[in-house]
Write a structure and sequence with these properties.
47% strand; 146 residues; Gp32-like; two-stranded antiparallel ribbon; 1 helix; seven-stranded antiparallel sheet; mainly beta; Pnp Oxidase, Chain A; Tail tube protein; 9 strands
Length: 146
Amino acid sequence: MAKHITAASVIVTLVADELYPTGRVIEGFAEDSLRSLDDLVRTESVMGVDGKLSVGFVYYPVNLTLHLMPDQDGYTVFENIAQVQNTLVAPIYLSMTIVDVSLKRKYTLTKGALTSFAAMPNANRLMQPVDAAMVFERCTWEEYEG
């Protein structure tokens, strides 16, 4: 099957050490957006007064946000993580796999934590999507044939 750009076939599995050690499939994404990521800075550079450029590799965290509908199980998973973090006054470590079936890629995110999650969804005419923002140490990918 050829690659395509359908986001509906994405499979997100989250492991939260203390709560979901065997992993939970996250479902129930917003109508127009499943996830968003910040661009990663791969190198930094400085130029000396003599005009010579020096470039070096740098590590930066991977910032990932999932956009969830509040009436779905995926929202409840992150609601539980946020509540336990508040109770423990400590982060719950996360890892995640994201399978983009349409692009034939499997992404693995490791050593992460939930950094931001609303106390409740915004209420307009309908309840609004809620963002679950996370930070991870690494993101790697491999070919996926599923």
